[in-house]
Amino acid sequence: MSNMPLLTMITFLPAAGAVIIMLFMKKEQTKAIKGFATAVAVLDFLISLPLWFRFDQSEAGFQFVEKVSWIPTIGVSYFVGIDGISVLLVLLTTLTMIIGVVCSFTAIEEREKEYYVCLLLLATGMLGTFIALDIFLFYVFFEITLVPMYFLIGVWGGPRKLYAAIKFFLYTLFGSVLMLLGILAFYFANLKMGTGTLTFDLVELYGVGPKIPLSLQIWIFLAFFIGFAIKVPMFPFHTWLPDAHVEAPTAGSVILAGILLKMGTYGFVRFALPLLPQASHVFVPFMMLLSIIGIIYGALVAMAQTDIKKLVAYSSVSHLGFVMLGVFALNEQGVLGGQLQMINHGISTGALFLLVGVVYERRHTRLISDYGGLSKVVPVFTVIFAITMLSSIGLPGLNGFVGEFLILIGAFKKSYVYAAFAVIGIVLGAAYMLWLFQRVFFGTLDNPENEKLTDCNAREVLYLLPLVILMFWIGLYPKPFLGRMEASVKKVVKMVNAAEVPQKAALGKLTKLEKK
Amino acid sequence: MQVVIPDIALSLALPEIGLAILVCAVLILDLFVSLENKSRVGVVAFVGVVILALVAFGQWGEGARTTFSGFYVVDNLSVFVKVSVLLCTAISILLLLQYAKVEKINFGELYAMLLFSVFGMLVMASGNDLISIYLGLETMSISIYVLVAFMRHDPLSREAGLKYFLMGAFASGVLLYGMALTYGFTGTTSIRGIAAAFAGSGGPAIAQNPMMIFGLILLVAGFGFKLALSPFHMWLPDAYTGAPTPITGFMSVAVKFATVAALMRIFFVALPAMADRWNTLLWALTAFTLVWGNVAAIAQTSLKRMLAYSSIGHAGYVLMGVVATMSVVDGKVTFTDIGISAVAFYLLAYLFTNLGAFGMLILVCRDGYRGDNIEDWKGIGQAHPWAGMAFVVFLLSLGGIPPTAGFVGKLYLFAAAVQNEYYWLAVIGLVMSAVSMYYYGRIIMVMYMENRGEGQEVMSLSSAPSLFFALVVLVVATLLLGIFPGSFLDAAKGTVAGFI
Amino acid sequence: MIELAWLIPVFPVIGVLINGLFGKHVGENAGPIASGMAGLSFLVVLGIAGQMIFGAGGSHTIPLWTWVEAGSLSVSMSFLIDPLSTIMLLVVSGVGFLVHVYAVGYMHGDPGYPRFFTYLNLFMLSMFLLVLGDNYLVMFVGWEGVGLCSYLLIGFWYEKQSASDAGKKAFIVNRIGDAGFLLGMFLIWTLTGSLTYTEVFQAAPEMSAAMASAVGLLLFVGAVGKSAQIPLYVWLPDAMEGPTPVSALIHAATMVTAGVYMVARTSPIYVMGPDAMSVIAVVGALTGLFAASIGLVQNDIKRVLAYSTVSQLGFMFMALGVGAFTAAIFHLMTHAFFKGLLFLGSGSVIHALHHAPEEQQQDMRYMGGLKDKMPITYWTFLIGAIAIAGVPPLAGFWSKDEILANAFFTGHYTVWIMGTVAAFMTAFYMFRLIFMTFHGEMRVDHHAREHIHESPPTMTVPLVILAVLSVIGGVIPGFPPEGGWIHRFLAPSLAKMPAGGHAMDQGVHLMNAAAGGGHSGPAVVLLIVLAIAVAVGGIALAWYMYVKDTGAPRRLYRSIPGIYYLLLGKYYVDEIYQACIVEPTYKLMRGLWTFDAKVVDGAVNGSSLITMVSSRFSGIFDLRTVDGAVNGTASFIRFFSQVFKYLQSGMVQNYLFVMLLGIFVMLSAYLFR
How far is A321 from chain B (nearest CA, A)? Predict the structure, then answer.
């Protein structure tokens, strides 16, 4: 059992399922396809559970490692493994996939076969991204996810799906190709100044960073930054997100918010920080500034929205600003908080999109003004929405708070100025969410269309419930989550701080660079 | 005057000799085959080309050997190019078999002309002298002028052929003038001889001579035309659009192979002394080509024309590898392996991908209907899922999205650029590859995301087995090069052996 | 018994789960269930309090589980039982239990009955966590939790726009305070490396005055929000949109005093930061006076009480600011009794009038003469009013007197004067309320008159109990002033002002002298006499204006209309906030949204547009060089096309032209540079 290539199985099971659907199932057999896709997702989740139970918390390095030479000519290997930074993301992905499949049963009514194929292929891409320990492999998976998502938005999306799909695809592709440039630059820098071998092996490359001159590090960091910041998305690279979210089908939005965006923040933690420690330090003020702008700006723009999904999308911009704030605090609290907040955002924003999907399926409108007074007709829905909303605005006792608290305390430790600005986001977060809640659920039920609304059915409650449970669990007892991440986060923080450069020297070099 | 009978190792020219015999055989066979059965001629040509490819492959890895008094060289690069060109030819014949029937151009000469051009390409690949290179080039070009204009009933095709011919002739002249100037300064047409002349004591003076520089510029311009680098690309959209589709696919790939091989031989081996000049020129051409080709492709509504512009862009990528081969360390010019092997691999990836893309166009061709308009492709993804997926694979490969051949190819090219610190060229290339996904993505969009209006029927597909077989091979190869590129990369790396 | 402290919040959790999940099935049983749970908690509290008061006392930590652990940061979910939390628990669970019982009757027949009690239990849970936590983070959990419940309960009748608006306002204003609290917490952690009270306070003496003040002020921002002080008090009057039991429990007796508790809890840090203390004293005094002045002219019975609450909270902060932590907690306790009583009494009145038109139910101008119809309500209300006015020996006198005396003796004379004036106003507006509501002729709507009746026992019994507490709740723990039982009991929990180094040194000295002289120090006696005089004076003035000469108020308004309207309009603070903060925020948000759509996204779309246009252009360029002559757009090209017509099309020379152009450019670049 212990020798089984567990991660490979988890990653490629969905793809195998997709191939089976493609080859052996007729498109008319929608029930069978749904059932099979669900079975694949559930099975994938089940086989990913050992990652939770057999994960060694005290180990900071990689576990469940598999390594096979792949393209020896250029030093690429199929190298996968997980550590505290990725384990929860993998689990969140497998869980989200079940939800993504189940929530689509009635929402998707045409071309179902292709839909589930895309969904399952997407799962493979995302899982691969999180487990890859070879930068080349990472990049391959990172790019592959674009394609199924492009289809999900473009084929099953809303009225402006074509625009949203191509915008999503090109914008993120634009970022990732520049990131590729950074990867290659690092690859050759390693050849010249590091280990002297051609390798994309992350474990070997860790530690090479400090040997690279700062001027080059800065350029590589910028390349990474463009790639990851667009994915996150950080202000001002965020405008693809609202369009993609609004037009994507529910499952697409859930996966986009829950997992895909995390690929950006994860990228920063996994690659940018440990590989480019000095540059990371140089960029702290810049990153903090963008994060804070993102937090406040995202919240304010969210407030101005009239479309629920767009509001939630902009709230993501704000929340991911928090994540980045934590990550670039470059201390344990901040990074740990950022890590936890990635999971939290996946849970609560995912749930919000699911909830929007639930009413959208019934009413076919997402305009806030079309609703009002819903709490009277759909009490269960209201309660779940309320809990999710509170989790999203970081009410203590729910998951969002723990993450935000750690992020803020980490940011405060870095500089009180950052935290002082970031807390404005907390106030605004409450403002736009409560206002949304008020407009949708409170007031009188004056739209006759809404009177016919039916409450959540058993299936809907079933796929929302795990998320609600997680909200309370992480909120009240986050130790199993934080504990699993802590050792690895400490390692990253140590790596990035081991090579700290005095700011003045760094800036001096920067100006020199500009003069060149 | 003593006449020296040179030592001629005919076995080194075995593929070319074989090809010459094959052409004759095809011409003769053509006389005995009735008009309905001309496909048999094609089949013979196909079989012959496959065999020749194997023969050529047999020459791999035996080091650089020259023959015909140094006119001719067989090294790994030339073998690589020859095998690839023959492979490309074989697949193109498969594509032609169906297309020629539909377009009613199924004549034996078609295959003969094709093989003639291939002959020229093989000569170019092995040419070790300005004369032999030029001979090969002209043989190739003239045959292709004919092929482009082969659909005599179609004014577009005729026009394309004529344009191509006029422009080609002019360009050949330019190239020849460049060669002549080079000869004038160095006193030799031999590639090695030119290099020796530059390396000699008078070399630096020649390199500084304005007329030599003029000659170099003419060489660059001539090759620029043949490769359709902007701003010398004007002929290409028309020629590509007018030519029979399989021929378009063929020339987009095979001509690039042969021309790039010749270009590399002249610039890397003969003219390294002027590397800083031609490199800068090529840098500018590359950047301009990348931008122009990819940007202009966006606005096209004809699929064929779009692919024509896209092939301009790809020529830019190929050239990027050529440029990136040169590395300047402490003011000393050296050539690194990675650029050449990147070019080789990229061309190989492009072979499968681009032929595949044109193959898709042939798949929908019916009598009088070319499926050229993008709008025609609406709903294909739903009606013909496998065909749709194949096209998606080709398009992703063209755009450089993993896990396809195009991705590894581009990665390798950019790696070359980054290693030798052509960062801005890499940035342009990368950004343009993102831009290119706009128009490739639009085809996917049309196929999958836009539905046919009421009463519009989705195109039906050809069911020709040859076409089907070719496309399957191409899809598999495209994915194989993307997922397990190892041995192909090794081969690409091997092309450098004995070359520089 | 103390080890069982974890049970205290468990009962409300059970109540929440039962009523929350099975509300539909529970129906009207929700009230008794929730009350029972609150009662059980109260019993446990009583047990603990007994042990604390009659037993050894001291402070006890009950660890539950490690909550957040990240590197050097470790916070556990632990409870702390010490004298301060004991007093708070008694107040919270006692008044809470009574309000639960009261609400069983008050909320009878409401469609949201189970929901109401779910929220109420949830509130108890949060409040317990706030009080019980042994560190700032757990306190913050409760802190936010009560804020949430306040939001939910204010907006309980969510179909009413004003109610849901008020709820939202409360939450958001509170959040502003919370942001300060959070920052304060971060600063504490950065300075001391811990958030646990005992560890923080151990390190507190090492803090510099500036840092201590910074911590103090940040935390105070939180307190300002929660306890409705200037400038964040605006949510509390609006909170009266909630059901009256909620107003009594949350917006008078318990939640709003959380800020007072928090500052008192943090006293070891505050005593290190005199600047923060001064700010608190001034803000408290200002709020006390300011809110009391608004209370003078309001006509809505609950709003008068709301402003009174704000004002009384101001008194408490006044006490905290001058270092009289015990007095603050003492006033917190007595205030919980009499203000709870007053709110429940007003609820009883409103309940009786619920057949009147809605806008008249709470308007005192439509009341009057109710004392005969509802005697229990009247008499208990009267006791509450006397208590708050500060007439001995009722509860309010003892605590308020201590506050004013402390302010005086510590040298905060301005604060003392403001407090005294506020006390006068308090007495006046309370009795204005009594006279307008219960005395004089009945002005109630005719249809509603026959429905007026005394409230049911579930409502009156809590009134009576609270009335009793309002009578004895001050004298028993607080006699003699400055030396009562409560001082001895709370001493271990609260820091003392350091003897030296303060500006108020002399005052402390004076006070000590006075305290040494016990009850009979001349200054103390003088102050007490003054306090009583102020209270009685206020009552008398109210009697004169609203019983003796009912035309007097009108004449007064007429003579000073400006002041009157300023007070009636609550100094227009809400309007100012609306104009200066809310509207600009809206404008900013819309502006940013436009900015986002037009500029940020515009840049993205713009770049794609540019690409598109240049694509079209380059396509056209290519075509023109091809077909330009044929299309004949340019005459010179047409000319050439004529000349070279025999070439079938005129494009080739254009090609060549471009090509030669390219060569020319290269040549010029290389040869003639």
Answer: 26
Name the residue among C70, C168, C186 with its Cβ closest to that of A434: C168
Q: What is the pLDDT of residues C401-418, one digit of tens each?
A: 888 888 888 888 888 999
Q: For the residues B168-195, what does the mean pLDDT come to? A: 90
Tally of domains in chain A: 1
Query: What is the dihedral angle through the alpha carbons of C346, C348, C352, C356, rounded to the nearest 10 degrees?
Result: 30
Residues of chain A in contact with residue B448, where contact means CB-CB under 8 angstroms, are 151, 154-155
Average pLDDT over residues C631-649: 42
From the list A136, A154, A170, the residue facing B438 with the nearest CB is: A170
Average pLDDT for residues A398-412, to the nearest whole number? Answer: 92
3-state secondary structure string, chain B? CCCCCCCCCHHHHHHHHHHHHHHHHHHHHHHHCCHHHCHHHHHHHHHHHHHHHHHHHCCCCCCCEEECCCCEEECHHHHHHHHHHHHHHHHHHHHHHHHHHHHCCCCHHHHHHHHHHHHHHHHHHHECEHHHHHHHHHHHHHHHHHHHCCCCCCHHHHHHHHHHHHHHHHHHHHHHHHHHHHHHHHCCCEHHHHHHHHHCCCHHHHHHCHHHHHHHHHHHHHHHHHHCCCCCCCHHHHHHHHCCHHHHHHHHHHHHHHHHHHHHHHHHHHCHHHHHHHHHHHHHHHHHHHHHHHHHHHCCCEHHHHHHHHHHHHHHHHHHHHHHHEEEECCEEEECHHHHHHHHHHHHHHHHHHHHHHHHHHHCCECCECCCEHHHHCCHHHHCHHHHHHHHHHHHHHHCCCCCHHHHHHHHHHHHHHHCCCHHHHHHHHHHHHHHHHHHHHHHHHHHHCCCCCCCCCCCCCCCHHHHHHHHHHHHHHHHHHHCCHHHHHHHHHCCCCCC
| Residue range of the domain that includes A410 | 293-476
**Is B402 in contact with A140 (Cβ distance < 8 A)?**
yes
Q: What is the ipTM of this complex?
A: 0.88
Looking up tokens 């402070």 gives C59
Q: Which two tokens stand for residue B493?
A: 């790396």
Domain locations in chain B as residue ranges: 10-494
Task: Establish whether the linkage from the previous residue to A233 is cis, with ω within 30° of 0.
Answer: yes
Domain membership of residue A370 (yes or no) is: yes
In order of A137, A228, B292, B434, C225, the CA distances from A169 in angstroms are 20, 14, 22, 9, 46
Chain A to chain B Cβ contacts (< 8 Å): 96
The reply to whether A167 falls in a domain is no
Confidence band for B479, pLDDT divided at 50, 70 and 90: very high
Cβ(B247)–Cβ(B154) below 8 Å: no
pTM of the model: 0.90
A7 within a domain of the structure (yes/no): no
